[in-house]
Amino acid sequence: MRGGDVHPGGVFVHSSGAEKSLIDTIDELRKYHGDKQGKKFRVWVDQVLVTDTAPGTWMVKLGKWEQSGDERIGCTTTVKFTAKDGEGLVWEHVEQTWSVESKLKDDSSWII
After folding, report:
1. Which of 54, 64, 79, 104 yields a CA-CA distance of 20 to 30 A from 17?
2. What burial class does residue 10 get, using C-beta atoms within 10 Å of its C-beta: 0-12 exposed, 13-18 middle, 19+ buried?
3. What domains are there in the chain, each with its CATH number?
């Protein structure tokens, strides 16, 4: 996901409240490639709800979970997509909110 897939002004709002460029957030994921190798690690989503908010615009709300060893953390993620001619769907805004059971004191173990 790069270039035409992400709005140049797209924003990622982390569960901790920190805001960052969506493109920078995606680029940052490269440093995590393979860091969980040899460890029990899973990421999954559930409760996906898609809402057509305006012609060519959708809000997607989902539960996102990460499990490393016996620790499981989760958040509610909301993504705004818009349809752009010739580009398909473009990510415009991503926002995450901690689930009640996942309030972390240190979010350094949280990948995205």
Report:
1. 54
2. buried
3. 3-31+40-103 (3.10.450.50)
